[in-house]
Design goal:
Length: about 400
C-alpha cells in the first residue's frame, strides 16, 4: 500500500492515478475539510480529465483520511515555499510530514519526497531527522526523491506521458520506485542519485524562468523605444536557432516563480543571472500597473474604478491562483495607497479580492477599460464583447487595435 501525504495540486492527481492503475492507495491530508470533500465525492480543484480519474480511483478503492498509515511506502507531496529574505527553501511542511511518517511507519519503509526541493535538502534536513528518530538511513528508512513534472491544465496527460526522474542513493530502491511509477507513466523514467534529482528539477524550472525573463526584459526595452515586441519576437524566431518566448504580466504558479530562488538562496555569489532574471519577472506586475496609469492618462481617464482586470489565475483555463500576477498587481496597488480596480475571472467562484465580479457582462458594463491579465478561452472566444472598450492586452490575444506590453 502507498500512503500519499498531501492532497493538493500534485499529491491528489498522483494518488488518483496510482489507484486507477491498480495500486492500493490511501491519501492523507492534515486539512479535514479537504478530506471530507474528497470522501463525499467532491473534488477540491478543477482540472481537465480529473473527474473521470477520480471516479476510476474511487471505484478502485482509494480512501482519504487525515491519519498517517502504517505501510512500507510513502509519497510526500506538500508545498515547499521559500524565505523571501534569504531566498532559501523553507522545508517546514516536508519536515512536519516526515516526522509524522516516522511515528507510524514500518522498518524498511521507503519515503519518497515528491515536493520540489533545493539541491542538498535531503542531506541537510531529511536525513538528520530520520537519524534523530533512531533509524538508520538506507536500512531502517530508505529515502527517494521523485520530483513531479506536471502543469495545471494538462496534469492528467502529463502524469502519463512526461518523462520522470527518480533519485535514490540505493539503486535497488530506485528501481523499486521506478516500477511503482511505471504502473501509469509511459514516459522514460531515469534513476539517478538523490542530489542530482534535486538539482535537475530546480534547473528545469530555472531554465524556463530565465527565458521568460529575457522576453519580459525585451518587452520593457521595446516599450521604452516605441517598438512592437511581438513583431520583433516573431521575426527573430524565424531564425532556425532562435526561440524567444512571449512576455507577460508576470510569472505565477508554484514552480517557475518559486523554485529558481532556491538556487539564488543556496548559491548567492554564483547565481547572478538567475537572480536578475527572477527580479525581472517579479517586476512585471508593477510594470503593468504603470502601463495602466499611462493608458488612462492617454485616454483622459481619472477614475481607476472604471478599469477592470480580466483574470485572477496565474494561467489560462485553470482555477490555480498561486503566485498570480493579478494578485501581485493588486497588492502593489495597495502599497501605492490606491484601490478600486475591478476584477473578474470565470474560474474563481469565491470572493477572494475586493471589487470582484462573477458575471462577465456585468464586469464589462462596469468598466471603460479592460486589462487582459489571463488568456482564458472565454475571453479569446468573445473578444468582440470588448469592441467599445479600451483594451490593454498583456497576453497578446487581440487581433485588432489595442494597447500591448
Amino acid at each position: 500500500m502507498v500512503n500519499v501525504i498531501g492532497l493538493g495540486y500534485i499529491g491528489l492527481p498522483t494518488a488518483l492515478m496510482m489507484a486507477a492503475h491498480g495500486v492500493e492507495v490511501i491519501g492523507t491530508d492534515y486539512n479535514d475539510g479537504v478530506v471530507e470533500k474528497l470522501n463525499s465525492g467532491e473534488l477540491t480543484f478543477k482540472e481537465d480529465g480529473i473527474d473521470e480519474l477520480f471516479n476510476a480511483a474511487v471505484n478502485a478503492g482509494i480512501r482519504f483520511t487525515s491519519e498517517y498509515q502504517v505501510t512500507d511506502t510513502y509519497i510526500i507531496s506538500v508545498p515547499t515555499p521559500y524565505d523571501k529574505f534569504s531566498k532559501k527553501i523553507d522545508p517546514c511542511y516536508v519536515i512536519q510530514a516526515l516526522k509524522s511518517v516516522l511515528e507510524v511507519c514500518d522498518k524498511g519503509a521507503i519515503v519518497v519526497i515528491e515536493s520540489t526541493i533545493s539541491p542538498g535538502t535531503i542531506d541537510k534536513y531529511v536525513k538528520p531527522i530520520v537519524e534523530a528518530s533512531g533509524n538508520v538511513v538506507g536500512k531502517d528508512i530508505h529515502l527517494v526523491h521523485a520530483p513531479e513534472r506536471i502543469i495545471p491544465g494538462k496534469m492528467i496527460y502529463e502524469l502519463v506521458h512526461n518523462n520522470r526522474t527518480i533519485g535514490a542513493d540505493d539503486k535497488t530502491i530506485g528501481e523499486k520506485i521506478k516500477h511503482l511509477y511505471s504502473t501509469f507513466c509511459k514516459g522514460e523514467i531515469v534513476v539517478t542519485s538523490i542530489k542530482t534529482a534535486e538539482m535537475t528539477k530546480v534547473v528545469e524550472n530555472t531554465y524556463r524562468a530565465v527565458n521568460i525573463a529575457f522576453a519580459n526584459e525585451l518587452a520593457k526595452i521595446c516599450r521604452y523605444d516605441g517598438l512592437n515586441v511581438y513583431e520583433i519576437i516573431k521575426i527573430c524566431n524565424m531564425h532556425p536557432r532562435v526561440n524567444i518566448l512571449q512576455p507577460g504580466p508576470g510569472v505565477g504558479g508554484h514552480c517557475i516563480s518559486v523554485d529558481p530562488w532556491f538556487l539564488v538562496g543556496d548559491y548567492p555569489s554564483l547565481a547572478k543571472v538567475i537572480d536578475e532574471s527572477m527580479k525581472t519577472n517579479d517586476s512585471m506586475p508593477d510594470f503593468v500597473l504603470n502601463r495602466i496609469y499611462e493608458i488612462m492618462q492617454e485616454n483622459g481617464m481619472t477614475d481607476i474604478s472604471k478599469v477592470g482586470l480580466y483574470g485572477l489565475t496565474y494561467k489560462e483555463n485553470v482555477d490555480d491562483i498561486r503566485e498570480s500576477p493579478t494578485l501581485q498587481l493588486l497588492e502593489s496597488q495597495k502599497r501605492h495607497l490606491a484601490n478600486g480596480l475591478k476584477v473578474y475571472d470565470p474560474y474563481i467562484e469565491e470572493n477572494i479580492v475586493d471589487n470582484q465580479y462573477h458575471d462577465l457582462d456585468e464586469f464589462i458594463n462596469a468598466v471603460d477599460m479592460v486589462v487582459i491579465m489571463v488568456g482564458h478561452d472565454e475571453i479569446k472566444n468573445n473578444i468582440q464583447l470588448l469592441s467599445d472598450k479600451i483594451i490593454f492586452d498583456t497576453r497578446n490575444i487581440c487581433v485588432g487595435e489595442c494597447y500591448r506590453l
